[in-house]
Design a protein that fits this description.
Ubiquitin-like (UB roll); 9 strands; 5-stranded mixed β-sheet; alpha+beta; two-stranded antiparallel ribbon; 247 residues; Fumarate Reductase Iron-sulfur Protein, Chain B, domain 2; disordered N terminus; 2 domains
Length: 247
């Protein structure tokens, strides 16, 4: 079939969880929407179409639309992923179920508050450079040059966009409320690799050397399987375990 000389796309069916916890008496429910698929359509594009053409009250988050900000994380057909980088052609059956990321406070519909959790992780890990120089920096002095290989290793671990996919896919976090999670472990590994940070393995043991840290991870691979940036979660968790055993 064609429309205006162009092939007509298939009709996609979206089943979306709707619930506004701020609205008294509102209850969670699944609502069905039908959208005609367009070439190159992503989940994000489809959601915008639904909000603009059918449901102005639909809540979901986005900023960059390029897989950089991490705002549009949600559960897509049972798997945490980013709406802006997930093509609708990935689902040949044409039926797509969208739900908010678990493990985070629900704001409404597909929108969750990842910021509070990420801030708590940053505070727990103290994700800033710890050194005497950092306490009283001299802004007139050039920073010491870093070996390119070291800089690359730090950058690799700094690519996390805090989308929350790894946290939502973590089975350990379901059983241990205070479990640090993959986001925290990547931050620890990043500062361990930074020669400007003076913290020792003994210092890090106080942060991650228990069942709420690296020894609690059950290695279910949920974090690595769902990370949109393909970060080496399990390799680094194993590395941190070896360091903590020796601490």
């Amino acid at each position: 079939m064609t429309t205006n000389g162009q092939p007509k796309g298939r009709t996609l069916v979206f089943n979306i969880l709707r619930f506004n916890p701020q609205e008294k008496g509102d209850k969670p429910r699944m609502v069905r929407y039908e959208v005609e698929e367009a070439p190159g359509m992503t989940i994000f594009i489809a959601l915008n179409h639904i909000r603009e053409q059918m449901e102005p009250s639909l809540q979901f988050d986005f900023v960059c639309r390029a897989g950089i900000c991490g705002s549009c994380g949600m559960v897509i057909n049972g798997r945490p992923d980013l709406a802006c980088r997930t093509l609708t052609t990935k689902f040949p059956e044409g039926e797509i179920t969208l739900m908010p990321l678990p493990a985070f406070e629900l704001i409404g519909d597909l929108s969750v508050n990842t910021g509070e959790f990420m801030r708590s992780v940053a505070e727990r890990v103290e994700s800033w450079i710890h050194s005497e120089e950092a306490k009283a920096p001299d802004l007139d002095v050039l920073e010491e040059r870093m070996d390119p290989d070291t800089a690359d290793a730090i950058y690799e671990l700094d690519r996390c966009i805090e989308c929350g996919c790894c946290i939502s896919a973590c089975g350990t976090l379901r059983m241990r409320e205070k479990f640090l999670g993959a986001r925290g472990f990547m931050s620890v590994a990043r500062f361990m690799a930074d020669p400007r940070d003076d913290r020792t393995d003994a210092d890090w043991y106080e942060v991650i050397g228990d069942d709420d840290g690296v020894f609690g991870c059950m290695t279910l691979l949920g974090c690595e399987d769902t990370c949109p940036k393909d970060l080496p979660h399990q390799a680094k968790i194993a590395y941190l375990r070896r360091r903590m055993v020796k601490a």
